[in-house]
Amino acid sequence: MSYRVCFVCTGNICRSPMAESVFRARTAEAGIDGLVEVDSAGTGGWHEGDSADPRTVSVLEESGYDGGHTARQFQPSWFSRLDLVIALDTGHLKALRRLAPTQEDAAKVRLLRSYDPAAGDDLDVPDPYYGGMDGFEECLGMVEAASEGLLAAVRRQVEAGAT
């Protein structure tokens, strides 16, 4: 059985598809991609069916990641099939925990940057949508830095489940 991770931001066109693509690459590099399912969604449905923001696609592809994506909205019913729900900022964290049907489901929600020891107290990945390319590049850097710690945590869970 796969370990399932879903990244969540606001509209599922900037931060969460970026995190999904980076983390999918990390699991492949680690050789656990067959054991981990990686997905993303938004707290809202404004962009459902849309591709990722062109600036997200550009930053991802320039760094060697897959830019293909179709936006969708997170559904509370998904909690039952997910092992970990990764929020990109504290607003998403709160919204997702409110949506969680049970306390156990609420406990599955974590902030991405909580997996980056260098993040300090600033655990939000800022929304780059209303800015320029530099915001998307900064976002990618934050996602990449946190993905290493997240990969280590997921690998421990996968290995524990395999024993």
UniProtKB/TrEMBL annotation:
Specify the protein name.
protein-tyrosine-phosphatase
Q: Where is the Phosphotyrosine protein phosphatase I domain?
A: 3-153
> Where does this protein come from, organism-wise?
Streptomyces coacervatus
- What superkingdom heads the lineage? Bacteria
* PANTHER family referenced in this protein's UniProt entry, alphabetically: LOW MOLECULAR WEIGHT PHOSPHOTYROSINE PROTEIN PHOSPHATASE (PTHR11717:SF7), LOW MOLECULAR WEIGHT PROTEIN TYROSINE PHOSPHATASE (PTHR11717)
Pfam hit, one: LMWPc
Top EC class of this enzyme: hydrolase
Q: Does the keyword Nucleus apply?
A: no
InterPro entries in alphabetical order: LMW_PTPase, Ptyr_pPase, Ptyr_pPase_sf, Tyr_phospatase_low_mol_wt
Q: Which SMART domains match?
A: LMWPc (SM00226)
List keywords of the entry alphabetically. Answer: Hydrolase, Protein phosphatase
Gene3D superfamilies recorded: 3.40.50.2300
Per the UniProt record, which EC number(s) apply here? 3.1.3.48
Organism classification: Bacteria, Bacillati, Actinomycetota, Actinomycetes, Kitasatosporales
Q: What family is it from? A: Belongs to the low molecular weight phosphotyrosine protein phosphatase family.
